[in-house]
Amino acid sequence: MHHHYGKRHILRGVSLQAEPGEVLCLLGPSGSGKTTLLRIAAGIETQTSGRLVLNEREISGPDLSLPPEKRGIGLMFQDFALFPHLTIIDNVRFGLTQLSRKDGRGEAMVALERVGMAHHAMSYPHLLSGGEQQRVALARALAPRPGVLLMDEPFSGLDSRLKDAVRIETLAILREARATAIVVTHDAEEAMRLGDRIALLRNGQLVQTGTAEDLYHRPADLFAAGFFSEINVFASEVHDGMAMTPLGPVKSPDIAERAAVSVAVRHSGVGVVEAGKGSPARIVARRFLGMEEHVTLAVPDGGDRVEARVRAGDVPAGAREVGLVVNEKDILVFES
Ligand SMILES: Nc1ncnc2c1ncn2[C@@H]1O[C@H](COP(=O)(O)OP(=O)(O)OP(=O)(O)O)[C@@H](O)[C@H]1O
Prior knowledge:
This protein is an alpha+beta fold. 24% of the residues lie in helices and 33% in strands. The longest helix has 18 residues, at 160-177. Adenosine-5'-triphosphate is lined by residues 5, 10, 28, 30-36, 186. This is ABC transporter ATP-binding protein.
């Protein structure tokens, strides 16, 4: 699928499939095209070229494009906020116009009960907190029992504690409804918590699709590695199957001799030990983060700084000259 806005090529050859009942997260930085892809799936936008197929039936292509309401897809988009002048139950009933008034009310109440908001049925949106409004929006999207639900940053307005709770509830509801969900997020951790699979986008192109484990442990490139963990990056060259870095030599099998490489080392994979062990380094800054501590270190040769994330208390207060050790699992080598 391709999409242009004017002369700008926004989606470039994206090909993606959500399996029935799965939660697929579209992940990527701002401007990578996630929302555009979701709007095309919803039918709010029509792609420049390419086809959309739902349950083996084409819903959009060169010859036809079903409008959003004929696609049998539930939408939870930020710009589809609740109607302020309607009660909560009427907001949820909004997508149930095919049903009689009585049946519509019944279904709306079932949906509100599922998100724990039935007791607010006669209230109005402005009387609810942000998290409560979000749950009502979820009830409204789920009430027509869509087979597919498209959600754009559904938890972005919530503070972090509420976000966890609403996210867990949402996942439970999606599982119970056996709905297929495509969820847009720019937050890798959220994608890992929520998604059965993750599709990572950059500049309108699909970088990698897979489970959280695939993307974290086997990132396709340096960009994917940096999106899933905080990393140190060292430029190097391969000699005798090894790349030299400020943290010592790193095995670079399957990469051609003399090839330029980027060596990524996760901050969490760098251990700070007593001087004399590991490779020598000097602490230049440290920041206490509760359970963990972020330590910035200088290494003797070269201007590279090394960042480490260690368990708080592991590095004695006042330590200056130290040693660095690296966990091999946290080293990734990419051809530049
Ligand atoms: N209606 C439009 N007209 C022109 N350009 C647009 C339009 N909508 C989006 N764009 C551009 O398309 C690109 C992709 O936007 P999109 O909203 O899909 O990205 P995104 O990954 O969802 O970003 P964010 O996380 O910031 O919402 C951006 O560069 C944006 O400026």
